[in-house]
Amino acid sequence: MKTTTEIWRQLVSWVVISTTLFLVVVMPTSSMLHASAKECSFPAIFNFGDSNSDTGGLSALFGQAPSPNGITFFLSPAGRFSDGRLIIDFIANRLGLPYLSAYLDSMGSNFSHGANFATAGSTIISPNSTKSHRLSPISLNVQSKEFSDFKLRSELIRKRGGVFESLFPKNIYFSEALYTYDIGQNDLTYAYKLNMTTEQVKVYIHEAVSKFSDAIWNAYREGGRSFWIHNTGPLGCLPYMLDGFPELAAQADMFGCSKPLNEMSQYYNLKLKETITRMRKEMPKATFIYVDMYKVKYTLITHAHEYGFEQGIIACCGNGGKYNFNDAARCGATKLVDGKKVIIANSCKYPNVRIIWDGIHYTEAANHWFFKQIVNGSFSDPPIPLNMACNSHPIHH
Ligand SMILES: *[C@@H]1O[C@H](CO)[C@@H](O)[C@H](O)[C@H]1NC(C)=O
Ligand SMILES: *[C@@H]1O[C@H](CO)[C@@H](O)[C@H](O)[C@H]1NC(C)=O
Ligand SMILES: *[C@@H]1O[C@H](CO)[C@@H](O)[C@H](O)[C@H]1NC(C)=O
Ligand SMILES: *[C@@H]1O[C@H](CO)[C@@H](O)[C@H](O)[C@H]1NC(C)=O
């Protein structure tokens, strides 16, 4: 016969074992994450990055992106390198916020619900030479400085009242906002243009992710708590790289994408992910969502027909060549005919069924498809949907 103490001991150990099992087996599934998470109401978005999310920054600095950019949606270039909207536009839309004004755009901008610090051609590491490599001088460290200044001066300018109060975010928005990032592609491009060896590119990537973490720290110190971070896409599937590096293009996978270039994108993503894991420990009050854009983009490019698209890696807007990309006549390039400017690199007929827009960027149709894949969190780590990205990872609690 068992004593009461023995029964109790058995009962206690049963409870301990089953609780542990519950925590290990049941807790980490995404449905539990959702059940324990609350829906967020982000009053603003602050975005950092390159052309993947530039809504007018580079255009404000160096002249507008040319037609036919914008033909599908805005019916004018609208500062974006695409025929229409970018993923960041769909994100803003889903959160019920207006499209983001570019911080550098002094005309017609309204920053009441956020600002966009991204410019096309931006890198994480400030490049030594911008012009000869078509890079932007607004690297991520500059974007961080702009952001800090923006926060400081928003507070001062709002105090003037009147129209200024409706043009700049409230102080509280800086801690409640969603901070979004999509950068790194141009650092890889730059490294290859400098003829770095594979080992040198890897060292360069280590430096890049360390600088990336500096930028997150800056936003965190300014009050940022919710971070939504895209990794970099498959560089080896983009015409500008395939055209520019024929030896790398020759080492192709079955879809025509360059294996060494894609391996390097994945190496960057691995290091980025490790950095984010470390930042979660360093900034326990913040939420970090790592979004696997590589997987989403590679899936569409390599299964174009399955998803109703055509011509995986061939650019829609261009001027001929193997990938319809010609570096000397990029999308929107013109030449004078009888004193009139005529576009010699124009849009394909049906950009709505194409993936690559101009050899570097994606079409609105592809961007919309990408957005639909990522919005429910199925490509995120942790698998939290966009509208719940203010919740810390429950497992860390
Ligand atoms: C940029 O210039 C600095 C100083 O001249 C040099 O140390 C560094 O290696 C250069 N970086 C690249 C990527 O060329
Ligand atoms: C700025 O945008 C907000 C939100 O869309 C709007 O309420 C406000 O009136 C706008 N301000 C101006 C000056 O247009
Ligand atoms: C890289 O190599 C190419 C081909 O050899 C050469 O034309 C180019 O000038 C090199 N670039 C740099 C930055 O050294
Ligand atoms: C997320 O959305 C995509 C696209 O609509 C869908 O295929 C996928 O099954 C969804 N995943 C979850 C976990 O809901």
UniProtKB/TrEMBL annotation:
Q: Which InterPro entries would you find in this protein's record?
A: GDSL, SGNH_hydro_sf, SGNH_plant_lipase-like
* Keyword line: Glycoprotein, Hydrolase, Signal
The entry lists its GO molecular-function terms as:
hydrolase activity, acting on ester bonds
Superkingdom of origin organism: Eukaryota
Family listed: Belongs to the 'GDSL' lipolytic enzyme family.
PANTHER family reported in the protein's UniProt record: GDSL-LIKE LIPASE_ACYLHYDROLASE (PTHR22835:SF117), ZINC FINGER FYVE DOMAIN CONTAINING PROTEIN (PTHR22835)
Protein name stated in the entry: Putative alpha-L-fucosidase
Q: Which organism is the protein's source?
A: Lupinus albus
